[in-house]
Amino acid sequence: MDTLAGYGVNIIAPPLWMLVTTDRRNRIVASPYARAARNAGLDIIAWSLERSGPLTNGGGWYYQSVKPAINNDGDTLTLLDVLARDVGVIGVFSDWPATTTFYANCRKLRGKP
Predict the structure, then answer these.
(1) Cα 25 → chain centroid
(2) Positions of E strands within the chain
(3) Of 43, 40, 44, which is closest to residue 18 (Cα–Cα)?
(4) Listed residue (7, 2, 28) closest to 16, CA to CA
(5) Model confidence over 8-46: pLDDT tens digits?
(6) Sign of the dihedral defined by the CA atoms of residues 98, 104, 109, 113, in that order
(7) Which of 54, 55, 85, 95 is deepest in the core (most CB within 10 A)?
(8) How many Cβ atoms from other residues are within 10 Å of residue 34's Cβ?
(9) Is 112 strand, coil or helix?
(10) How far is CA 49 from CA 2, 45, 59, 78, 85, in A?
């Protein structure tokens, strides 16, 4: 990550599963990759929230790193909260932007994660 920053890269945009993992209690947390990016001063944009359809079966490819923590559609908001608060993303691509808008309005965000 430091090398990327050294080359002048300011923003990276990995898929969701690279930015999150689970802890020993199966809670969604920032991944080592996400922490390394933030420590190198890189901004992060995540993709793609709600691409996998219903989350009752673990969320598919986009949620592969947190499958043990995913079992209902409300987990989308849990993941989004971790991305915003713990990972510190500056944006999230979503197939259904109503969810990200709802989250931002609940947190009273105006163009800030």
Answers:
(1) 19
(2) 11-12, 20-22, 28-30, 43-49, 91-94
(3) 44
(4) 28
(5) 999 999 999 999 999 999 999 999 999 999 999 999 999
(6) negative
(7) 55
(8) 26
(9) coil
(10) 27, 11, 10, 12, 16
